[in-house]
Amino acid sequence: MIKSFVQKKLTFREIDPEKGLRAAMDLSPEAVIDCISDSGLKGRGGAGFPTGAKWKFCRAAKGEQKYVVCNADEGEPGTFKDRVILTRFPHLVFAGMTIAARAVGATRGIVYLRGEYTYLLGGLKKALQERRDDGRLGPAVLGGDQEFDIEIRMGSGAYVCGEETALIESLEGHRGESRNRPPFTADTGMNADPTVVNNVETFAWAACILDKGPDWFRVVGTDHSVGFKLFSVSGDIDRPGVYELPLGTTVQELLEAVGGENAKAVVIGGAAGRCVGQGEFDRKVCYEDVPTGGAVIVFGPGRDMLEVAENFLEFMCEESCGQCTPCRVGNPKLLECVRMLKDGNCSASYLREIVALGESIHAASKCGLGQSSGNVFLSIVEHFREEIMGRAVGSV
Amino acid sequence: MVLLTERDRLRQSLAELAERYGKQRSSLLPILQEIQRQHYHISDYAMQVVADLLGIHPVEVFAVVSFYSFLDFKPKGRFIIRVCRTMCCHMQGKDRVARQLETDLGIGFGETTPDGRFTLEWANCIGMCDLGPALLVNDRVYTQVTPNEVHHIIEECRKVFGVHATQGQEV
Ligand SMILES: Cc1cc2nc3c(=O)[nH]c(=O)nc-3n(C[C@H](O)[C@H](O)[C@H](O)COP(=O)(O)O)c2cc1C
Ligand code: SF4
Which atom of ligand 1 is nearest to the CA of A72? Predict the structure, then answer.
């Protein structure tokens, strides 16, 4: 088994996944949705959409067959907390999916697991079979009137398939090309039927909330971001691993928790996130300040920020689905500019044009990939101008 | 005794796969993933058969195969070694591991050994950021790989071939 360091205090360790499920089955679907809405839970996959509202839309949408899809594509560079959750707490995730099924009236569940995590498949299938064997899944969940079963479908190495509409395309047997939204998946998802798509961690928290109640969840956080969140922390730190911290934790507090006090920069949110420099370490990690799906990558004093920008832009150029021109053609232009900077060949006026191009890509791209692909580069240009300008050829 | 050609056998096994997963479009990826697993690539002929079985145009199948980086239409090695090249693994020393793999296998990235046993590729973030450098050998994950361990990983794969090993066949 692959063993990541996990901080000792971890709520998921203390929760009995089945208690939340039992509570949900005794409630009306509307009451389940109210419980989640009252808790203030927002999506843990990055975008931070209120989970209760999503479920409510899906419940209200018309369709004979509804689906609950667990997004286990975890492709964002720097995130690995979903892998840890799926390894250690699969029942919590499946219980959360079953609760969602109860809430929206879905009978079919699908886990979209990234191909890189194929080694987890055996354990997950075993957990599903245990649930079928004792009636936690099947034609009558816990002996009630809810039918629900879960199957696992594999990804095949495409980051964009983590985007929820591309994920649906992939499940339907197509190229993982994102769709325009609206329509949203809650309304028009799998086979054009109403579909709830949530992150692995979101389902796990939903199961906790049904057990402990909405007020229990609200005790920590900020006005717009409540509850704890799992962070995947890596890079130049003493203790890389998974940490559970309240939303609203400052970057500085986070660095102290992981042993990264001498950091020069932190990229929060992975390749789609942004780079925070030393002057901003008092900023809060939460939806209204520096948002993240959980990826925190720490860079020590010796790191070249252009190398960071180059690596993440290479990633984006490779992973763009290629549908829209700004994303397909624009990102390689940004990458080319980073390489010019590395060689000391980029004039200040050209850099200004490229920054404007980066903003156009953000504005004109169809999905979240193109809308965020330039963020790391643009924030590095903003905070590290002294470092990136005037390079001598072959200096690094 | 009926003699089956390689193609007959493939057609038969694909028909079974389509039976198992169902002949709807949404079965396309699971079917292709299974072909990839068994044959280390998806040949033109296999794409044609799958298209016929699901009632879609072969170009549709090709479009899907060419989109996903874990599906290949060109023959790949029995073992595909994918080294994570994303930032976290990069910072933890992926270049030295990659260099040792190239040297030990005698091929560069994107290439397959002449005996068809190993393919070397880069991967984008494989989710082992806290345990880099990391790599995949088919479905297996190796974490915190040192350049010195590369040799053992390759040897572990080689054991599969044994002394009477035959090479994979093109179909
Ligand atoms: C390029 C791209 C990749 C994404 N990858 C993931 C992913 O791997 N896992 C995930 O949960 N959400 C991912 N998302 C976000 C999903 O589109 C979606 O917002 C999320 O699954 C909703 O779940 P949540 O509300 O529980 O966070 C990605 C978005 C984009 C634009
Ligand atoms: S923004 Fe990029 S990844 Fe998203 S749909 Fe457009 S081309 Fe595809």
Answer: 9
- Do B106 and B47 lie in one domain? The reply is no
In a domain, A223, yes or no: no
Task: Decide whether any atom of ligand 1 lies within 6 Å of the A375 Cβ.
Answer: no
Residue-range definition of the domain harbouring residue B12: 6-67
Cα gap B115→A368, rounded to integer Å: 42
Residues 184-223 of A with CB under 8 A from B: 191
Is residue A235 located within the same domain as residue A379? no
Between B30, B69, B90, which is nearest A311 by CB?
A: B90
Mutation site, A76, A111, A118, A320, interface B, largest B CB count within 10 A: A118
Q: Sign (positive/negative) of CA torsion A251, A255, A261, A266?
A: negative
How many structural domains compose chain A?
3
Domain boundary among A274, A299, A324: A299
Which pLDDT does position B168 carry in this prediction? 46
* pLDDT of amino acid B163: 60
Q: Please give the Cα distance from A92 to A167 (Å, whole number).
A: 22
**Residues framing ligand 2 (Cβ under 6 A):** A 160, 178, 320-324, 327-328, 365-367, 369-370
pLDDT tens track for A260-280: 999 999 999 999 999 999 999
pLDDT at A241 over 60: yes
Cβ neighbors of A94 (< 8 A, separation 6 or more) are: A17, A127, A128, A131, A136, A137, A150
More confident of the two residues A373 and A8: A373
Q: Is the dihedral of CA A86, A98, A206, A41 positive or negative?
A: positive
Angle at A16 between CA A13 and CA A18, to 5 degrees: 145
Q: Are residue A150 and residue A275 in the same domain, yes or no?
A: no
pLDDT at A394 > cutoff 80: no
Q: Which of A193, A217, A241 is the last residue of a domain?
A: A217
H or E segment to which residue B34 belongs: helix B28-39
pTM higher than 0.90 for the full model?
yes
Instruction: Assess whether pLDDT exceeds 50 at residue A61.
Output: yes
Number of domains in chain B: 2
* Containing structural domain, residue A350: 305-389
Blockwise average pLDDT, block size 10, chain B, 171 residues: 84 96 97 96 97 97 98 95 97 98 98 96 98 96 97 94 55 41
Domain-embedded: residue B170 = no
B144 Cα: distance to centroid of ligand 1 (angstroms): 27
Q: Is the pLDDT of residue A134 over 80?
A: yes
The three-class DSSP label of residue A48 is coil
Within a domain: residue A373?
yes
- Examine residue B73 and state whether it is found in any structural domain, yes or no: no
- One domain, residues B103 and B51: no
